[in-house]
Design a protein that fits this description.
9 helices, 6-stranded mixed beta sheet, 3-stranded antiparallel beta sheet, globular, 2 domains, alpha/beta, Rossmann fold
Length: about 260
């Protein structure tokens, strides 16, 4: 494995306040990572920097290299990175059907326009992805008629229809019930076979066995980074959440509570 993503000295300021402080990160291809921290710790901002949706302060020591290059045309980069986030609001509340949203992922568009020429095989790919997330029977439902959890699963299907090299998940289990969260964990395991996964989560049970590295963030800074079994300790989590945290572990899956 080699570094295919590295960020050095990223600082992001918003409303006069540093919300990401001197963050440096290196990820090897096939090295799956979970980022954990309290609300406001800077987790989502770090994902935005990776995806180049947010640009840090211009400093001589700042560097952002992904897939071996510092400079990218945004449309080309979007074909290599899949992002699932609550901020994909334009996909969540549209009147396009679930099937159309998934299939249009192949064209990096929201639905289709007159210039798109959709192939039968594209629809078949969309159907296969919807089957994986358990929503094939609802493929013709409009996005604005689905539940929050169902919308999230449609977005998972959409980004994985083109097998991105890098999959960024920002609290992907939000609004999912226990069985759906377990299904999501199994999906992440399958996605990890063809994509490098970096996920932000508050829910330890969402971390699939394939995720082998954990980063802890607090107050905009990366404070711990290492192997999952070494980082996920009660002392470490209690420190970043400023509350006593208890951890249980069973069959390769962690869970935590206060």
């Amino acid at each position: 494995m080699s570094d295919f993503l590295f960020i050095d000295h990223a600082n992001v300021r918003r409303d006069g306040k540093l919300i990401l402080k001197d963050a440096s990160l290196r990820v090897k291809e096939g090295e799956h990572v979970s980022i954990i921290g309290a609300n406001g710790a800077g987790k989502s901002t770090l994902l935005d920097v990776i995806a180049r949706q947010v640009y840090p302060l211009a400093r001589d020591d700042y560097k952002n290299v992904i897939f071996g290059s510092e400079k990218w045309i945004r449309s080309d980069l979007e074909k290599l990175i899949g992002i699932v986030s609550e901020r994909n609001a334009n996909f969540l509340n549209t009147s396009y059907s679930a099937r159309e949203i998934v299939c249009s992922g192949l064209y990096a568009s929201l639905g289709f326009d007159f210039h798109h020429r959709i192939k039968d095989e594209d629809w078949l790919k969309a159907d296969e992805e919807l089957k994986k997330v358990g929503l094939y029977e609802k493929k013709d439902r409009t996005m604005n008629s689905l539940s929050s959890g169902e919308k999230r699963r449609v977005l998972l299907a959409r980004v994985n229809i083109y097998s991105p090299r890098l999959l960024l998940l920002d609290e992907a289990s939000s609004a999912l019930d226990f069985p759906s969260r377990a299904a999501l964990r199994r999906l992440i395991s399958s996605y990890a076979m063809h994509s490098t996964v970096i996920m932000v989560t508050h829910e330890l049970s969402e971390i699939s066995p394939e995720i082998n590295r954990v980063i802890l963030m607090k107050d905009g800074m990366i404070v711990k980074d290492g192997k999952k079994n070494e980082i996920l300790t009660e002392d470490n989590l209690s420190e970043i959440f400023s509350e006593k945290v208890y951890i249980s572990y069973r069959d390769g899956i962690y869970s935590a509570y206060c």
